[in-house]
Specification:
The chain is an alpha+beta fold. The chain folds into three domains: 2-364, no CATH class; 365-431, no CATH class; 443-514. Helix content is 61%, strand content 10%. Strand 8 and strand 9 (498-504) form a beta hairpin.
């Protein structure tokens, strides 16, 4: 353990985690609803109108608008890294009830961070999409921070009333629809428990609970929510028991399956407790009870979504948060038990998660570098079409190469009118392409004629853009070897007035191209 402390001191560990998130966000273009919330701006009037006509998520909406208002990739990357690290840190520190770093955190922090990455239900949309992070990472950060302080107040029997915790209680209550009701429920249960135990209730808990309930009411009772719901007759027109049945039989199991790696991690830790008598004798039973409680709450956050006509994968981040808390409670209890088998077991699980993380991260970094190249191509098209006086035109959709799973993709939603408004034209449409076209941005350029240009790199990507539709075959010299490719076998797309072609030709330098 001493060797580990010397090799991975706290500062280096946190810095590495920070850089891991920062780097991916650095390669992430603004996309999807980022454009809409940039245009929304930060004026109170626009957000009040948004609240009255569209959404009750005032905390999330203002968070995303403020971040986007900077128009700085550096700010975007720092905000993603900070929010992720602080979220994980509160998960790690809740079982101990203190924010001070201790020896167990050298294992607990990487365990939670690795699990957050490899088991996240929709990493691309909850962490690397600015609007998505505002809705499902920042809001859950406020929730887990509130849980930390509420838990600490309970175990330390603190009576002081903090205005900051009161504000945090409101923000946690006004988080998102799947978690908010349980913030209010937890606060009420804490009051009921104290009343049962002590025949009295601390005033601070009453204040914090009222603030949390007020936040929940602001979120859920928003006029905008009712306006949006009025157009969802396909769901709200059904009897409530039918909606519950459909939700339980068709939606819940698929969404709970998204975080299966978290279940595996949790199960491995539980097995250490079950099959070791010494651990069972010494482990803190309160931590086990808390772990069981947050698992039940986590499942509840999934079950309650029967009330919603839609259930995107990213919503599961709230459920996932409670399972991370369960992992943290049990791992912390194992480490504090002092039993060698418990410490070694947690270390082994952490190493396994770390190995999966390294594999997953390498795929993510490669994939997001390619989408950054694709964004360069998209921006060049936008600049070119605007310069030509076009008011309506097409850009290619993003294409993701292999990642750990599709949850690594950021959102591909595209509103042509919103994109158009952002770039001061009528509309910008997207067109699906089934190949990685980043080589056009960063590959070697080969001018084949006045109408046709080819692009290549040594990784085997080969693309052609032509104003004329191509036929026949293309002959390439790759590291001195001749290779002929029929044009009809190349992947292709038509973007505005140009024909795009793509083929993977094998690694090597292309030195000659002929038709």
């Amino acid at each position: 353990m001493n060797t580990m402390l010397k090799i991975l001191p706290k500062t280096a560990m946190i810095l590495l985690a920070f850089l891991a998130i920062f780097l991916i966000e650095w390669y992430t273009p603004i996309h999807s609803d980022d454009y809409r919330y940039y245009l929304l701006g930060i004026s109170p009037e626009s957000h009040f109108h948004h609240y009255m006509t569209w959404s009750g998520r005032i905390i999330a909406d203002y968070t995303s608008a403020l971040i986007l208002y900077t128009r700085s990739q550096l700010v975007y990357s720092i905000s993603a890294a900070v929010s992720t690290l602080v979220f994980c840190y509160f998960i790690v520190k809740t079982p101990s009830g203190t924010l001070r770093w201790n020896k167990s955190d050298y294992l607990l922090f990487p365990l939670i961070f690795f699990t957050y990455w490899i088991s996240n239900p929709n990493l691309g949309q909850t962490t690397f999409w600015i609007v998505g992070a505002a809705n499902y990472l920042w809001t859950n950060l406020f929730v887990v921070a509130w849980l930390f302080f509420f838990y600490t107040i309970t175990i330390k029997n603190s009576k002081a009333i903090s205005p900051w915790v009161a504000l945090l209680s409101f923000m946690a209550g006004c988080s998102n629809e799947s978690v908010s009701p349980f913030v209010s429920l937890i606060s009420v249960l804490a009051i009921a428990y104290e009343l049962w135990q002590n025949k009295s209730v601390s005033r601070n808990k009453i204040v914090y609970s009222l603030c949390a309930i007020a936040g929940s009411c602001v979120l859920i009772l928003s006029p905008g929510n009712f306006i949006r719901a009025s157009g969802k007759e396909f769901w709200y027109g059904r009897p409530i028991f039918e909606r519950i049945f459909i939700h339980l039989t068709e939606r819940v199991h698929n969404h709970l399956a998204l975080i299966w790696i978290a279940y595996v991690v949790l199960l491995l830790l539980v097995l250490l407790v079950i099959f070791n008598k010494q651990i069972r004798a010494k482990i803190d039973k309160t931590s086990l009870i808390c772990a069981a409680l947050v698992v039940c709450i986590g499942i509840g956050t999934s079950l309650i979504m029967f009330a919603s006509p839609s259930y995107p994968d990213r919503v599961m981040n709230g459920t996932f948060m409670f399972f991370l808390l369960a992992i943290s409670f049990i791992a912390y209890a194992l480490l504090k038990s002092g039993v060698k088998a418990g410490v070694v077991g947690v270390a082994a699980v952490t190493v396994l998660c770390g190995i999966v993380f390294l594999w997953s991260y390498s795929l993510m970094l490669n994939g997001y570098k390619k989408t950054a190249g694709q964004e360069i191509v998209r921006q060049k098209i936008i600049t070119k079409e605007i310069a030509a006086g076009k008011q309506k035109f097409i850009i290619p959709d993003y294409y993701f190469v292999k990642l750990q799973n599709s949850g690594g993709h950021f959102g591909l939603f595209h509103d042509p009118a919103v994109y158009g408004e952002y770039y001061h034209v009528q509309a910008i449409f997207k067109k699906k392409v089934n190949f990685d076209y980043s080589v056009i941005a960063n590959g070697a350029k080969h001018s084949l004629s006045n109408e046709t240009t080819a692009y290549s790199n040594t990784r085997g990507d080969f693309a052609i853009i032509s104003r004329e539709q191509l036929t026949g075959s293309i002959t390439l010299s790759v590291n001195g070897r001749q290779k002929t490719i029929p044009v009809e076998k190349m992947k292709h797309a038509e973007i505005n007035d140009e024909f795009w072609y793509y083929a993977s030709v094998g690694k090597g330098e292309i030195t000659a191209i002929s038709f």
